[in-house]
Amino acid sequence: MNVISHWLAGRRGIVAGGGEAADYVADALALAGAAVARIADPSTDASDIAVAFDTAQAKLGGTIDLLVHAGVAMAPVSAETIDLDGWRATLSADIDGRFLFTAELGRRLIAAELPGSVLFLMPSSHISGGRSAGAAADGALANLVKSLAVEWARLGIRTNAIRSRACEPGGLREESVRRSLGYLSAYLSSGYGAYITGIVMGTDELPPERSSGD
Q1: N or C: where does the chain have the smaller number of CB atoms within 10 Å of the terminal CB?
Q2: Could you tell me the pTM of the whole model?
């Protein structure tokens, strides 16, 4: 991976969430010059999240101004087998965790009067059986990205997302997909993407093929 080494020079970031996509993006941000703290198993407790930020800031030597959150993987489950507690727990682990990390970042940046960036890594929006919780989370996160972008734009805090099969288990087998994810993550987190906020974009999604008779 040949990411431009100065894109994120002087930036300090947290990459939270499990999976190879989060690991790869953490490496890409580091190669682009950022100092990165990796949290593979992020909490959904506000107090624990505040401690995680304090720990990362002490380790990296300053205010965190970059957050990437990959959420948690949602295994396919048939809708009729999910009870209310299971439904809430699944969504909470993903949506609540992302929101609480983002809100903590926002509070710290606003207090320090600094700009910053948030990037969510999201699975493909492909609809299939067993993905009711994932589809619900997808819609909620897409709207959260837009809402936060509007709310924090005047403060210079940007919120974007990458929605891609690259962010799913096994999604990074192709070199072209890995490169695209690394480049796009670094670019959206950098000052070169300072004009981009409120966007959910993919790296590999193509429209369905049309037959010659269409």
Answers
A1: C
A2: 0.89
